[in-house]
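FORM 12-B: Structure-to-Sequence Request
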């Protein structure tokens, strides 16, 4: 009887050691795979007007990609929904960088035209289309012009210095493109 107890104790200890070794090796593999890192981070080079976006309210704004360990929330989804509903054109948004993680997630760096809100937001799994917390947005819709309006030459009767006490005209309509400012001063 003593022989059987010793053999079963040795077999039990061997089995326990085997399961412990398997458990340790699996836990190491899992933690190595779960580490999120950015694999690319590049400046967007498409036409500027194609990078005008608005928030969907499905994702918050972070100081870096939200799936990274030390990411901190800068702006809540509630605030971003309010910005998306805003009628102030100074709160239009431009995407200017894109990053991809090793998990295949895409994040965009965005800024409001007035510069008040800036950060990274989840943008889906494809770089070819805005998704997640962003969607495309048209900041300006051109109306129809008569031939005289399109090809005519005009002169300011009284130029003045309205708006910022320096200039009168814009290169683009105000707040329809990021950092496109005023042009003519007299």
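FORM 12-B RESPONSE
SEQUENCE OUT:
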């Amino acid at each position: 009887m003593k022989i059987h107890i010793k053999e079963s104790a040795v077999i039990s200890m061997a089995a326990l050691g085997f399961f412990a070794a398997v458990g340790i090796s699996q836990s190491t593999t899992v933690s190595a795979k779960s580490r999120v890192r950015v694999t690319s981070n590049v400046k967007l080079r498409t036409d500027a007007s194609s990078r005008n976006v608005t928030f969907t309210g499905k994702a918050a704004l972070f100081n870096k990609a939200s799936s990274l360990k030390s990411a901190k929330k800068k702006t809540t989804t509630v605030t971003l929904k309010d910005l998306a509903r805003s009628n102030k054109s100074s709160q239009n948004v431009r995407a200017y960088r894109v990053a991809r993680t090793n998990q295949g997630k895409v994040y965009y760096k965005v800024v409001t035209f007035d510069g008040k809100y800036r950060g990274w937001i989840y943008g889906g799994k494809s770089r070819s289309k805005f998704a997640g917390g962003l969607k495309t947005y048209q900041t300006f819709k051109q109306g129809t012009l008569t031939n005289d309006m399109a090809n005519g030459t005009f002169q300011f009767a009284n130029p003045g210095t309205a708006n910022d006490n320096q200039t009168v005209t814009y290169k683009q309509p105000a707040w329809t493109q990021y950092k496109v400012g005023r042009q003519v001063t007299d």
